[in-house]
Amino acid sequence: MAVIFAMAGSAIGLGNIWRFPYIVGEHGGAAFVLIYIVSTLLISMPVFVAEVSVGRRSRTSAYGALGRLSPGKWIWKAMGLLTVFIPLMIASYYSVIGGWSVNYLIKACSLSFLSQSPDEVTGMFGTFISSSWTPLVFHMLFLAACCMVVAGGVKSGIEKFSKLTIPMLFVLVLVILVYSVTLPGASVGVNYLLKPDFSQLTPRTFAYALGQSFYSLSLGMGCIITYGSYVSSKENILASSAGTAVSDLLFAILAGFAIMPAVFAAGIEPGAGPGLIFQSIPFIFTKMGMQLPLVSTVVSVLFFLTIVVAAMTSCISLVEVGVAYLWDRYSIRRPVGSLIIFMLCGLAGVLCSLSFGPLSSLTVGGKCIFDLFDWFASNILLLLAAFAVVVFVGFVMKKEDVWDEVTNSGAFKVNVKLFNLLYFLIKWVAPVALTLIFITNFIY
Ligand code: TRP
Questions:
Q1: 96: pLDDT confidence band, cut at 50, 70 and 90?
Q2: For residues 99-131, b (16+ Cβ closer than 10 Å) or e, as one string?
Q3: What is the CATH number of domain 2-443?
Q4: Angle in degrees, CA 162, 168, 169, rounded to 5
Q5: Kind and range of the H or E run holding 438
Q6: If you measure from the C-alpha of residue 153 to the centroid of ligand 1, how many angstroms do you get, rounded to a whole number?
Q7: Cα–ligand 1 centroid distance for 313 (angstroms)
Q8: Domain boundaries in the chain?
Q9: How much is the pTM?
């Protein structure tokens, strides 16, 4: 049971609360959400089962897992290397957003949402983000905290951490949701999420929806394989995967309904990009503070605190992959490994952070460095690594072995039809969908 919390801790993070709303806003609302839900159920959930199975069967971290199950084949080793590289790339810019969250936590503690008008609070984000030093300092602080936790070795720590914070995050998002939908002008935001406008759909919508779904579930790289290797042999993989996927999905949707109405009520452009929640959420707190200053302060502090913690549990799972690799491959001990990862990701993150300020004019194909990191990792590399895993499970592993993992060698009764459907989704639907979407990224 505890491992569900660790996996949910990795899955539930900035991807749900920060990335999901802004990607929805950039891709037209309800129609995107619909495709996101379908891709999560039909593709991501089966891939999740596949990754946990590979992890548990190989009982080793991401880098070695595929190679160990199919010795001697260089391609699986190369894929293993990719699954180490991607998390580090994500950790670099993830910790930038983690840093923003820490900064906003401090703002909440120092009552800055109460002393300004709603418009000033929305505008505050622009000033913060374009300054060069403050975001950098917070990025480094956040990353250092995550690396320090990893250095200590954290398996049980993460589980305990997540057990407390995830339910708390759910409650807080519900509180904000209730307040947000009652703001004047909020109904436009609710409709934006409920009434699909299919004329807005393009092939890119599908690519971003699947990319987001993978991102949110921490798929397509070492994280879930590594955590899968910690899953006990008594655990029911199907139930834990479904549990994690459904809570992650639910959380993203709740976050959407908490944030979008506020975005419209505040008159913010839904396609405003990565800053979306940092503009809309403080707006809510300022409004709330005009009537109920104490409640607003308490809710805002708790809210940013839980975001910071949720971001940390996810970032820790990213850093962990790299540190586990350095240990497995080069016997580099955890504290030294964590320091190496800190320096690598810290440095790469500097570029991402500055790309909102002094380096904003440096773009490739219209994307700044931050967007480029995010796009390349989540729309290209994640899909590639996930493709490798599903092909591996579908074509290299024996079907009986997959059945064995899913049913714990017959200990759990699993409906044969359900298993066959799952297997079909892993073996055929997922690889075909991944290929189509991969190509879409380059054509459209
Ligand atoms: N899923 C996390 C989130 O939603 C982010 C994350 C952690 C991640 N590990 C990952 C994303 C692995 C992709 C791959 O915030």
A1: very high
A2: bbbbbbbebbeeebbbebebeebbebbeebbee
A3: 1.20.1740
A4: 85
A5: helix 430-443
A6: 19
A7: 10
A8: 2-443
A9: 0.92
Q: What is the DSSP letter of 221?
A: S
> How far apart are the CA of 411 and the centre of ligand 1, in A?
31
**Token reading at 397:** 């592993």
**What is the CB < 6 Å shell around ligand 1?**
10-11, 13-16, 87, 90, 215-216, 218, 221, 223, 314, 317-318
Return the sign of the alpha-carbon dihedral for residues 201, 177, 16, 279.
positive
- How remote is the CA of residue 11 from the centroid of ligand 1, in Å? 6
Query: DSSP alpha helices (H): ranges in 276-292?
Result: 276-291
pLDDT tens profile 85-94: 999 999 999 9
Of residues 435 and 160, the one with the higher pLDDT is: 435
DSSP string covering 351-415: HHHHTTTTTTT-EETTEEHHHHHHHIIIIIIHHHHHHHHHHIIIIIS-HHHHHHHHHTTTTS---
What rounded mean pLDDT belongs to the chain? 90
Six token digits for residue 431:
């690889």
Residues with Cβ within 8 Å of 223's Cβ and at least 6 positions away in sequence, in order, are 10, 62, 87, 317, 318, 320, 321
**Are the C-beta atoms of 397 and 388 separated by less than 8 Å?**
no
Main-chain dihedrals φ then ψ at residue 29, nearest 5 degrees: 85, -130
Higher pLDDT, 405 or 5: 405
pLDDT-derived band at 235 (thresholds 50, 70, 90) equals confident
Local confidence band at 349 (pLDDT 50, 70, 90 cut-offs): very high
- Using CB atoms within 10 Å of the CB of residue 182, give its burial: 0 to 12 exposed, 13 to 18 middle, 19+ buried: exposed
